[in-house]
Amino acid sequence: MMAVGRDSKDLIGPLLAVNLVFYLIVLGLAGWSVDKYINGEQNHPHLGGNPATSFMLIYALLSGVIGASSMLVGFVHLRAWRNDSLASASAMAIISWAITALAFGFECKQILLGGHRGKRLKTLEALIIISLLSQFLYVVLLHAGFFRSRYGPGYHNYGSDSVGDIPVGNEPHMSST
Hints:
It is built from four helices and two strands, in the order ααααββ. The model is unreliable at 158-171 (pLDDT under 50). Strand 1 and strand 2 (166-167) form a beta hairpin. Helix 1 (6-38) packs antiparallel against helix 2 and helix 1 (6-38) runs antiparallel to helix 4. The chain has one domain (6-153). 33% of the residues are buried. By secondary structure, it is mainly α. The chain crosses the membrane at residues 12-34, 54-78, 85-106, 126-147. This is AWPM-19-like family protein.
């Protein structure tokens, strides 16, 4: 008999590690780029950009910080693998995905406006796209227990006689003698 959530747990561990690395690289590139913008070096050969670049960089920086934090909470959930840790991990994952999606939106606008974009800016754009997709996969894997308990801790409906695909017995009653 397989342990509850083993299928999803085997996939989430490596995905957390990869996402953490991506978010830390996004954080580093966005931080470097914001520093160059603050110093007035928009014409740096590795940077460039247009009016949408500053917005994209700010949201990429936020995405990197919140995404890395989300991965750390995810590692705690992976260690505990319980319903209560699922709640915090999934909340952080959804918030992180939403902010990464905002950064992606500004990135699309930046690409549409055109202009010179240096290689570090293009690398940051690619990493935001990859982070958006991999974070979405992480959110889906976290919520896989909703569909079947073999994929992980799920959501319980305490008012019914079953939880997912696991039947729930009646509570033990005290018998009076």
